[in-house]
Amino acid sequence: MKIKILGTGCKKCKELEANVKEAVAELMINADIEKVEDIRDIMIYGVISTPALVIDEKVLSYGKVLSVKEIKEILSK
Amino acid sequence: MDIFYPIQVIVNWLVYDLLKFSSETVLGEAINFFVYDSIKIFILLLVIIFVVSYIRTYLAPEKIKKFLSKKFEFLGNMGAATIGIFTPFCSCSAVPLFIGFVESGVPLGVTFSYLIAAPLINEVAGALLWGLFGWKIALLYVITGWIIAVSVGFIMGKMKLEKYVEDYVWKIKMNQLKEKKKTRKIRFEEAYKEMKSLIRKVFPYVLIGVGIGAAIHGYAPENFLTRIAGEGNWFAVPLAIIMGIPLYSNAAGVIPIVSSLIEKGLPLGTALAFMMSVVALSLPEIIILRKVIKPKLLAIYVSIVAIGIIFTGYLFNLIL
């Protein structure tokens, strides 16, 4: 699984990244987490409200910091 | 009757009867002021943030850019400024938002109406103004902010400034995102979450601000500001605006202090100009917008907004 966090490096983006890492660790799944900070790469996904969560190239959430619980729900689908 | 009157009765009982502070002393009065204002503002923040956040769930930027890309001028500026009232603005979202709007064909002037209204009219400032000055001043703040956003954006649209947008912005191509359907339950949950996190973030500043405000209310000499910042000093308004720029993150703490300064002779127009500058012109936002627009456009943007706020300041000093 390839997880990308889109965000230009603000506080909310860092919170989302931390939550994703925690969720992945708790579920003990094998995932590749990447932070995408370049604005041009972010825009390709059509996202304009950051932070956004992209899993296997699909935008699953944008414009909010998901909680660890919410991320776990998304990941276990 | 003031809808907050019951709270005043309870606070009076708590401070004067239960805690046995005398209503005759400065300390007793200042504590009463602090407790009453904190409770009142807390309630207003709860209600206003929740309502605004709920409306906001209908206004995802991904959706509104499609609406604003219909190229109608003036009406477009009015629409953009209105949406800006309900949307928050953090300096980190300014760049993607700007590019997203431009890419989908939203006119530059309309984009700026939005970029001005979003930070200028914010729900926390609105709630504080309501609590400290009454709903009329709060409404006045929203209306003048809206007029500034509409007119500045309209003027900027007429100035043909497209060449001052960084070139790479025009080359970005975006994919369309599918809008997810949201149930009412999800919208309520999102609004509730937003309310909780925003109150947790700003309320400590509110308490500090109201605390300092209460001290000024009780201890600062009457009219001590009249001489340095009174109506006779024409430069008080521009000065207030410059002072407001670096104070961005503490708008929640600044407003209660300002409200106490008004009692001590600070004219309301000057105070309003200062508070608008605190929320609308922020250093981080100016710096981050430099990534998408050239220095000249940035300078035009900041100056026109500043002129709009200065004008508001003088206007209110004149009529109130």
Task: Describe the 3D structure.
The complex is a heterodimer of chains A (77) and B (320). Helices cover 40% and strands 25% of the residues of chain A. Chain A is of the alpha+beta class. In chain A, helix 1 (11-27) packs across helix 3. The radius of gyration of chain A is 11 Å and the shape is globular. The two termini of chain A are 12 Å apart. The mean pLDDT of chain A is 88. Chain B has one domain (61-177, 202-319). Chain B is globular. The relative contact order of chain B is 0.12. Chains A and B meet through helix 1 and helix 2 of A and helix 3 and helix 5 of B.
Domains of chain A, number: 1
What is the number of helices of chain B? 16
> What is the correct CATH architecture of chain A?
3-Layer(aba) Sandwich
What's the helical proportion of residues of chain B? over 70%
The dominant shape of chain B is globular
Instruction: Tell me the distance between the termini of chain B.
Output: 23 Å
Binned, the helix content of chain A reads 40-55%
Largest sheet of chain A: 4 strands, mixed
CATH superfamily of chain A: Glutaredoxin
Give start-end ranges of low-pLDDT stretches of chain B. none
Global outline of chain A: globular
Give Rg of chain B in angstroms: 21 Å
Q: Which structural class is indicated by helix and strand composition of chain B?
A: mainly alpha
Biggest protein-protein contact in the assembly? A-B, 22 and 24 residues
